């Protein structure tokens, strides 16, 4: 198993999760983060740290497409281990439906 980042991270991107990961397996897109499934050691430490409750174990049903998305972009985007300031309107997007359509496939800046 692995943990995956899901829809509510999009455009919120608080980045609280990256600093607690013991194996530094978060990767940064322009408006979303992903977890590298082969690097994640399933410790679960990041899950309660996410203010958007966007991090889930992939054992939860219905997360196959998110696992696929995390896998794909973890190999394309830069690694991130240090929290930065998130988007200024991040709180406005917390909990909004339909954010997948707003996912940017562009890489973030990384560390
Ligand atoms: S803490 Fe949650 S919302 Fe913030 S970047 Fe990590 S996964 Fe995304
Ligand atoms: S479950 Fe642990 S190893 Fe996996 S991403 Fe979260 S903090 Fe990192």
From TrEMBL:
Residues 82-97 have a biased composition (Basic and acidic residues). Pfam families: DUF3470 (PF11953), Fer4 (PF00037). SUPFAM superfamilies: 4Fe-4S ferredoxins. One of its GO terms (molecular function) is 4 iron, 4 sulfur cluster binding. InterPro entries: 4Fe4S_Fe-S-bd, 4Fe4S_Fe_S_CS, 7Fe_ferredoxin, Fd_C, FdxA, RnfB_subfamily. Its cofactor is [3Fe-4S] cluster; [4Fe-4S] cluster. Residues 1-30, 31-60 form the 4Fe-4S ferredoxin-type domain. Keywords: 3Fe-4S, 4Fe-4S, Electron transport, Iron, Iron-sulfur, Metal-binding, Repeat, Transport. Residues 78-111 are annotated as: Disordered. It comes from the Bacteria. PANTHER family: FERREDOXIN (PTHR42859:SF2), OXIDOREDUCTASE (PTHR42859). Ferredoxins are iron-sulfur proteins that transfer electrons in a wide variety of metabolic reactions. This is Ferredoxin.
């Amino acid at each position: 198993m692995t943990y995956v980042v899901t829809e509510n991270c999009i455009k919120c991107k608080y980045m609280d999760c990256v600093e607690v990961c013991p194996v530094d397996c978060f990767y940064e897109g322009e408006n979303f983060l992903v977890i590298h499934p082969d690097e994640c050691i399933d410790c679960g430490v990041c899950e309660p740290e996410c203010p958007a409750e966007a991090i889930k174990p992939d054992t939860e049903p219905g997360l196959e497409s998110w696992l696929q998305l995390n896998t794909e972009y973890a190999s394309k985007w830069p690694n991130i281990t240090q929290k930065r300031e998130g988007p200024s309107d991040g709180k406005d997007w917390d909990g909004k439906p339909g954010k997948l359509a707003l996912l940017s496939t562009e890489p973030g800046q990384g560390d």
